[in-house]
Write a structure and sequence with these properties.
The chain is mainly alpha-helical. The protein contains one helix and two strands. Strands 1-2 form a two-stranded antiparallel ribbon.
């Protein structure tokens, strides 16, 4: 009976030691796992940042042509029909009424 009690206490003690050491390992490894698993996602429409990239001091980012509104504050269209149809557009293309090519309207840029 004493021998059974001794083995029970021995097994229980080993179990407690093994459990506490596993918990300690989990605590030590958890931050690494969490840090490695966390990746910040850029918001929609924003470019993804490149870590540890050194840019030259004279670097100028290159982007596409600036986009403009189809009409200015006075309501003048950026591109209008060459035949004089009413309306216009913000980019060159065919007229919505007659199909003729839209032409650039210089009055759009004038104050």
């Amino acid at each position: 009976m004493k021998l059974k009690l001794f083995f029970f206490v021995l097994v229980a003690g080993i179990g407690l030691l093994a459990t506490s050491s596993c918990k300690q390992e989990s605590k030590d490894k958890a931050p690494e796992t969490e840090q490695a698993g966390q990746v910040e996602q850029p918001a929609a429409g924003q470019p993804q940042a490149q870590p540890n990239v050194q840019l030259p001091p004279d670097f100028t980012p290159v982007s596409g042509p600036p986009t403009s509104a189809p009409q200015n504050a006075k309501g003048v269209w950026h591109f209008t029909c060459a035949k004089g149809c009413a309306g216009g557009a913000g980019a060159a293309g065919p007229c919505g009424k007659c199909g003729e090519a839209l032409v650039h309207n210089q009055a759009y840029h004038e104050n």
